[in-house]
Amino acid sequence: MNKFFIMMGQTYKNRVKSKSFLITTIVTIALIFVLTNIQSIIETFSDVDEEKKVAVLTEHGDWYEFLAGSVEMNDQLAFEKYEGSLNDAKTKVEEGDYESVVQVEQGADGTPEGTYYANQIANTGSSEAVRQALQQLKVQYVTEQADVDPAVIQQMNAPISLELVALEDSAKTAEELEQTRGLVYVMLFFMYFSVIMYGQMISTEVATEKSSRVMEILISSVSPVSQMFAKILGIALLGLTQFGIFILVGYIGIQQSKDIGDGSLLDFFGFTNIDPSTVVYAVVFFLLGYLLYATLAATLGSLVSRLEDAQQMMAPMMMLVVAGFMIAMFGLTVPDAAFITVSSYFPFFTPLLMFLRVGMLDIPVWEVALSLGILVGSIALLGWIGARIYRGGVLMYGKSSSLKDLKTALQLSKKEH
């Protein structure tokens, strides 16, 4: 047991000191800092305090007055009536006196229509504001021509109120469902990227030791099975360390960011009304999902002796992860679909799909217990099979990139046994 913990600690130390770990961690920390201060950064590199002037050319004075009034509340944009010609206005735009110019004329049907001129039309902020102002002007004009009370038009355009009420007492409210959907979405991405990143680490760790012949020395002192699970748990500790750093940096960034203001971390993400049991399920399914895929990654990694072959051997596992992720994305809109229900009992999809169902639906406890039982049983079975394959796989050298090598690994394992 002492050798097991030594192997686990060695795996952890080697990885935590590696350049890839440091670079990934630093880049992610920088990204978290940017995201938590995005508004301040945008304001620093943009002229948000400078009011953008738009020249308005129109023969209808009342139209201009309406347009100018429609953007009074917009402190980033101001309309200014231009008395000169269109060509002169374009020249003013090119010289930087105006951000843009809009010519408002009467269309064939008598309603207002405009033409927008600017040096670059890639910035849609100003043009969209002009479009909305012209739309309001058109509604106002048509309303007056038809002698319709503007209040009636405003009432017609007001959004309808539809309250969602669940008849079952145990069903989630619309607010709880929306917040749970956010948590499920976050967990799905965590699981997806964790399996890809840390699963790849485990397989390359094994392949590296085999390619350097270190494995031959380790086998004489530590059993292959102990090696496999030591690597799995060592990388798991690495992942917990990395996620802990990210959460801490994110928390500090959110607390100090002037863009977010007062409020807790849960307030920021909108998870204030999340059921605690949902968070517990998220942790349980995440850990079990990691163990399942990590065991598979270690098994596949033992079959290769060159780093170049590791990526190809990991392809089947990646396909499972991607398939589960895509099904889960579909399930976010229809979590009660029969296809989602059936797929949630497939062990490699269970961590994603069953958590999706638990979070968004009110399902019987026995279904959750059954899925957890299947998942734990699958981890135990895969661990047993994987240990036998690993025991033989670490003795295999040479070009190896086919699942046919599983048979060879099992035969070698029997000889060693």
TrEMBL record:
Q: Which Pfam families match?
A: ABC2_membrane_3 (PF12698)
The entry's localization annotation reads: Cell membrane
Q: Where is the ABC-2 type transporter transmembrane domain?
A: 19-387
Give membrane topology per the record. Answer: Multi-pass membrane protein
Q: Indicate whether Transmembrane appears among the record's keywords.
A: yes
Q: Which residues form a coiled coil?
A: none
From which organism does this entry originate?
Halobacillus karajensis
Q: Which UniProt keywords apply?
A: Cell membrane, Membrane, Transmembrane, Transmembrane helix
The record's annotation in PANTHER family points to: MEMBRANE COMPONENT OF ABC TRANSPORTER YHHJ-RELATED, MULTIDRUG ABC TRANSPORTER PERMEASE YBHS-RELATED
Source taxon at top rank: Bacteria
Transmembrane stretches, start-end? 21-42, 183-207, 228-254, 279-301, 313-332, 368-390
One annotated Gene Ontology cellular component of this protein: plasma membrane
Q: Drop me one GO molecular function for this one.
A: ABC-type transporter activity
The UniProt record lists the keyword Membrane: yes
Task: Specify the protein name.
Answer: ABC-2 family transporter protein
